[in-house]
Backbone:
DNA sequence: ACCTGAACACCGTTCAAGT
DNA sequence: ACCTGAACACCGTTCAAGT
């Protein structure tokens, strides 16, 4: 065939197909050869559009970051810093929950991914505008990232097996119900996320008060 | 050579060599062929001791879990639940910091790894003994896991690049200093971890009070 | 029981050749 | 510029063969 008059591939098309494959079958299922096959081309063709397979994965991850709502950090948005952080965390978590298999790639850090950087920038801007000192604003961005990404990557319930025999009551006296965890999985993780998020925000509010921030600037 | 009179390999030896290789060069550097070469045998020999490469990785991860201090959750330990959680989180984080490359494997969940299960069991036992209702104790175990694993897997500072040109001030108005983050990396992450941990514990203490737990049982 | 080499079915990536 | 097939240097894993 050689070169067709109209390109068979585009960056967007490759990223979309890669994302669909990862969503459907997981990170390991994505090989350049399989991805190319899905797109109806041969493996090496991808290298006309991306330098490496990893670059494709970064683009898939960034597309997920791009879906995180950041409107709560805009200057004219009415929400106070606590509500903004809470709403953002929920939006962030929801975006990750829709594409769980790509989360480990997102967790590597914003790196050079534009949408990932936009998230970091927005949180920092929102917190400093609300009266947090810059050094604290950086920390808040980091710690929220830990918690939200941790909840997605280290799902508690998903980590247990349904095989009851794995939990010898002699060895693990408190894990009698652990084999039921995968079943209740979603609700356990959701409850833990909400409890943790509330605790985090309550704790940060205490710290904000101690700052002398009696009249928060929004 | 065929079978030697004394086995060349042992599970412990394989796990130790695999751990060293992962620590030194990262997860992707571990191939069965390279690991075997380090041990002075041929690739397939490993399959006499482990069923899959993944089982080796699980064993490496479990060895890290086994180094997490759990003494604070023992019945006769004097620490109250908050101090116990705080000390545990620090020990957990330190263990992960010593072996950052294996953290993604640990994050997959305790699964069937004995030391991982022992951690989950100890936290749950410690929290219920302190007066937390079982459902809340489960959530606390999960949310602490999110935060500690998140801090290890999603290191904030390590995710930025030192290349200043990646942070166009037009696009990211608040990231002017972002290229300095890798340098300050360790201290930013440490500060964020401490801030987040304190906030989490402060928030949980509020919740504990609301439980009517005026006389905590230790 | 525990090692070996050969083999199978894959990988990511490079590159010269085609249009 | 953008695709191809062939090739390189790898993978994880299976298996018959050796002692």
Residues:
């Amino acid at each position: 065939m050689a070169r067709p008059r109209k390109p068979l591939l585009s960056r967007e098309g490759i990223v979309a197909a890669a994302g669909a494959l990862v969503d459907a079958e997981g990170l390991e299922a994505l090989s350049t050869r399989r991805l190319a096959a899905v797109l109806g081309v041969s493996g090496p063709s991808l290298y006309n559009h991306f330098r490496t397979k990893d670059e494709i994965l970064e683009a898939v991850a960034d597309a997920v970051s791009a879906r995180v709502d950041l409107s709560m950090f805009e200057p004219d948005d009415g929400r106070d810093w606590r509500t903004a952080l809470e709403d953002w965390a929920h939006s962030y978590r929801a975006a990750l929950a829709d594409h769980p298999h790509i989360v480990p790639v997102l967790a590597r850090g914003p790196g050079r991914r534009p949408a990932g950087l936009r998230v970091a920038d927005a949180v920092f801007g929102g917190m400093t505008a609300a009266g947090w000192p810059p050094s604290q604003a950086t920390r808040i961005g980091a710690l929220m990232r830990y918690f939200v990404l941790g909840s997605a990557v280290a799902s508690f319930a998903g980590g247990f097996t349904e095989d009851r025999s794995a939990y010898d009551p002699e060895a693990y006296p408190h894990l009698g119900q652990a084999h039921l965890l995968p079943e209740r999985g979603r609700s356990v993780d959701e409850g833990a996320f909400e409890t943790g998020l509330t605790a985090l925000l309550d704790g940060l509010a205490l710290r904000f008060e101690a700052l002398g921030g009696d009249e928060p600037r929004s």
In short: Chain B has a mean pLDDT of 91. Residues 1-4, 7-9, 41-42, 44-45, 48-49 of chain B lie near DNA strand C (CB under 10 Å from a C1').
